[in-house]
Amino acid sequence: MVTPVNPPLFDRTSPPTPPDPCPRPASALPEGVRVRALRLVYGDPRAAAELAARLTVRQAAGLDPLPTEPADLAPAVLRGCRAELRALPEDTRLLLLLAAADQYPVATHAFLRAVAAARLDTRPLDAAEAAGLAYATAGGVGFRDAWTRIAAYETAAPADRRDVHRLLARVLHGPAETPRRSWHRGAGALGPSGRLAAELAAAAGQARAAGDPALAGALAERAAALCTDPREQSRLLAHAATDAWHCGDGDRSRTLAARTDTDALTGILALRTGDATEAFDALLAGAARSPDEPGVTPGTPARARAQDGGVDTVTVRVPAMATASTPATHLLARAAEAAVYTGDLRRCREVRWVARGLGVDPPGVSGGIVAAVEGRYEDARDLLEATAGRCGPGGDPTLLVHAGIAALLLGDHHRAATATVRAAAAARARGHVAVVSQAMEFHAYTDFWTGRPRSAEAAALDAQRQAYATGQDNGACHLEAALAMFAALTGDADLCRERAAAARSYALAHGLGLPAALAQWALAFLDLGHGRYAAAATRLRALAASGPGHGHRAIRHLATPHYVEAAARTGDTRIARAAHADYDRWARAVRSPDDLALSARCRALLTPGADALDHYRTALDLHAEGTRAVERARTELLFGSALRRLRLRTEARDRLHSALEAFDSFGAPHCAEAARAELRALGAPAAPAHAGRRPTTELTAQQLLVARMAADGATNREIAARLALSPRTIDHHLRGVFTRLGIRSRIELVRLLADAEDG
Question: Ranked by mean pLDDT, which of 326-335, 380-389, 713-722 comes out on top?
């Protein structure tokens, strides 16, 4: 979890928000708000309860940013800490003030040097240690908790604070310590100063170039507080908001952005946490006037600009080998991302038109989707190939994410995995925490389709927690829909429906066509796996008819093989044949082995009698060259069923056993049971689900840990507290345990684990 970077406690610019007259417990908050609230209060349950009671209705619903000032977060907790500190001797409080100023909100690690320079006696720290408030460490002072550290700073007089900041500034030397020295110089200022503001702005640029957006944001915000020029102040606040976003502090970023009029920043925040259509409009407007945005200096190709988020946040000199992308390119990439999220073809076209008007290359993802929908499949392939090809190491994180999306659309899961992993690595290297979860949103698909659904689910849950923690509720919604798809594969009907309902509810309220369509597909996939073909066909037909914000043309296209299967099983093949013809054209254009295999499978399903067998064999030959292990297993199941009906017993048995083994390895018991039913109908023996294996081998490491705690009698809430997870996540893990072990109660779980350990 990323520690939030807050401004100096003595530099508040807005009054506290009045609390909701009907307070609620922290556990009753929406998941995203709950996770962010815990992060802001450093995981302290006392402070979390106090903050939850103080939130407004809009804050509690996630519509407004949460407060970020400590005095607004948990004033009662702070009052208690201040009372304890005031009971200490004055010289003890002075040392604690020095230590707190050295650690918060910017860590400078200069306490011991400052003590030596001022010839201070450190023995008074014994009183703080005796009171259990702080203790001496090898590097300085450790506080009992974050609130004690904050209170140690707040209880001091303003003059004393300025003195310790000036002392710390004097002992910081060398080029590497320049940003932190400037910070203390700014924190020790008596009032506004253009000279100090310029020094802090330059130091922020240095920190930003070094990949430390947290420090850069604190410096830029302090520079804005000291600045006397309103236009420059707005520019600095935009930089600070962008830095806060990069380092994962979404609430602070939104609060600061509200004090600026930057289209680009507004659009980026809306893209990840607001209405996707509003995000698109703001981003496109920002791209059209990007040279006028705060921080953008036209005609300076030798200057480094922010590689993510679209806002040019630093204009420091970089080495000759560095590359500089125009702000318009990044804003258009983000606008394309917003258009993809909405599923609005008209907006995808707008991105292309604006890009051409600005003389830059249009983003390949949106252009590829437009070309595909218009039936220009070769053009779509070329646009997506060009985008997917930009997946080299060390590249721009945002463009690497787009490369991964393009590769997924092309059915190239290996390249998609490479691009998304590199996007996450590049984002971490730049300190851009927010982009990491964006990259992992799409990486989870590669694990899922290539036959690693457990790994995909674990990665998606981790990315969702990170998305919630960094204020990216739209990304968390997309992951919720993906998790519904994973639950559909594993046959957990209740969890699939719960996740799909949550994802669709949020998506429809925020114009997010992509997760809305994905959730609908997940429900259809669940119906298909349980043999409810009419229900699956109905859902997929409804998906095809859904408009922007409710559906998505790419998801509709990707779901075509499932629709053909459902329609063929119900005898409604007229529309299915037209859908397959279009899918086949796409498969032949992109030449993806898996897409060609699925097209051959569709052809087999639409072909009566023995003539279908050659199409199934062609499909399996193509699957052998591809990576979609989940679909290959389904093809083998369908092929084995067709062989059984034609009384080709030997080949049918081989195909069905192969499908059974694959579904067992995926943790898809309902699909495995379908294969067993076919084998029973064939008169061939089918091994029971857990034959020859200890039951615990069916569980992931996380599931086994949760299962053992539950067997020991711990409640879901107690397990969540021990593992630092939400009770909802623990409930999900236990559902997975029960499904994979074929049990229904904790009593059975205790008995099964005891037998396994005895064995």
Answer: 380-389
pLDDT at 83: 95
Least confident of 120-129, 246-255, 605-614, 749-758: 749-758
Q: Is the pLDDT of residue 320 over 80?
A: no
β-partners of residue 141 are 136
Please choose, from the candidates 680, 608, 607, 674, the residue with its C-alpha nearest in 3D space to the C-alpha of residue 637.
Answer: 674
Q: 648-682 burial string, b = 16+ CB within 10 Å, else e?
A: eeeebbebbbbbbebbbebbbbbbbbbbbebbeeb
Cβ-contact 421, 463 below 8 angstroms: no
CA gap 50, 72 in Å, rounded: 10
CA torsion 28→30→35→38, rounded to 10°? -40
The number of C-alpha atoms within 13 Å of 516 and in the hemisphere containing its C-beta is 27
> pTM of this prediction?
0.79
Can you tell me the distance from the alpha carbon of 218 to that of 215, in angstroms, rounded to the nearest whole number? 5
Q: Please enumerate in sequence order all residues whose Cβ is within 8 A of that of 301, keeping only pairs 6 or more positions apart, or say none.
A: 324
Domain 327-424+433-441 of CATH type 1.25.40: yes
DSSP state of 646: T
Q: 463-682 with 695-758: one CATH topology?
A: no
For residue 757, what pLDDT band results from cuts at 50, 70 and 90? low
All structural domains of the chain with their residue ranges: 327-424+433-441, 463-682, 695-758
Residue 150 has pLDDT above 70, yes or no: yes
Place of tokens 């208690």: 80
pLDDT band at residue 687 under the 50/70/90 scheme: low
Cis peptide bond N-terminal to 67, omega within 30: no
CATH number for region 463-682: 1.25.40
> Which two structure tokens, joined as six digits, stand for 186?
């700014």
Cβ–Cβ < 8 Å for 477, 271: no
Nearest Cα neighbor of 154 from 73, 54, 79, 72 is 79
Contacts 24+ apart (CB under 8 A), 195-198: 196/223, 196/226, 197/223, 197/224, 197/226, 197/227, 197/228, 197/232, 197/236, 198/223
Residues 473 and 495: their CA atoms lie apart, in Å, by 20
In 3D space, the residue among 533, 489, 408 whose CA is nearest the CA of residue 662 turns out to be 489
Mean pLDDT, residues 320-343 taken together = 67
36 and 434 in contact (C-beta within 8 Å)? no
Rounded to whole angstroms, what are the CA distances from 249 to 242, 328, 582?
A: 10, 25, 45
Tell me: pLDDT of 736 over 60. yes
pLDDT, the chain, mean: 83
Cβ–Cβ contacts within 10 Å for residue 298, how many? 9
| Furthest C-alpha separation in the chain | 94
CATH architecture classification, 695-758 = Orthogonal Bundle (1.10)
Triad 703, 706, 712: Cα angle to 5°? 140
Give DSSP secondary structure letters for 328-395: HHHHHHHHHHHHHHHT-HHHHHHHHHHHHHHTSPPPHHHHHHHHHHTT-HHHHHHHHHHHHT---TT-
d(Cα 125, Cα 121) in Å, to the nearest integer?
9
In angstroms, the CA 140 to CA 113 distance is 10
Neighbouring CB atoms inside 10 A of 320's CB total: 6
